[in-house]
Amino acid sequence: MRQSLLRMLVIGASLALSGPASSEAADVEFNNPDKAVNAYGITTYLDLAKRFVPDIKSVENGYVGKTRTKIRHIGGAEFESKDADSYGLFDIASTIMNADGKKRRLVLFDFAQAADAAQGLAVLALYDAGIRNDFLDAVDVGFDESTYFFDQATLSVADGSDVILTMSSHFNSNQSYNSYSMLLVRNDRIEHIDTIPLLSDRTCAAEHNQEIRFASNPAKARPYAPITVFVTDMITPTGEDCGSEVPPQEARGEIRVTYSWDEATKAYRPDSDALKKLAVENGNRF
């Protein structure tokens, strides 16, 4: 199993906070493939993983499989991973969430490739949290090389309903790419609310960091509470001697977008396109 250094480095550059009336963040466990899923049976996390990579098996340095079961990507067909011919098994993270007033088990399988590829296969699977651990739904939530639950895995949006928060990332020597997804479970099916790409980087003259947090108040559920997304954009001069590179002015700004439930379309809708504009600006910085 992969060590947590990458996750700590990336999540350490971001922030997730719930609103005053929101419930505490769900506990996330990182599981060995041979660990039993619950106390009622002998099913292991490796058994669950074989639904998605049927031939995955233990090898000298971990787990590898060559075949995969096709499942829908939460962002649409254009986001499906198509450049991998083998799949390792790195993190297996799990948590318990609330969906439509029921307890559900979420398991996030990060099938990062055994060989280099631009985008990983990250399967988020939904199960009943009872004795039988029945499979309910699964989607690919991978938008980058590695995917995991955000530091706050779930956000309460109603009495008995949570939104799921995941993030995909990769980084190089001076840039960190992070995509944050919000997901809702209705009728035991995982639905996409939105994915927000952020970019942090460093030059000789300045650091440009973007951080994100989420807030909701379940008491305002109609039937789901609004979700407010805050993105803080910060430019900080390094003070280093960078020759002809002119240091920018120190700056700090915040983008705030609120997603509200639209009963007519049965979906969350943002109150502005500010995050989409930010994504375009970040794309121009790549």
UniProtKB/TrEMBL annotation:
Keywords carried by this UniProt record: Signal
Source organism of the structure: Rhizobium alvei
Signal peptide: 1-25
Top-level division of the source organism's lineage: Bacteria
Protein name according to UniProt: Uncharacterized protein
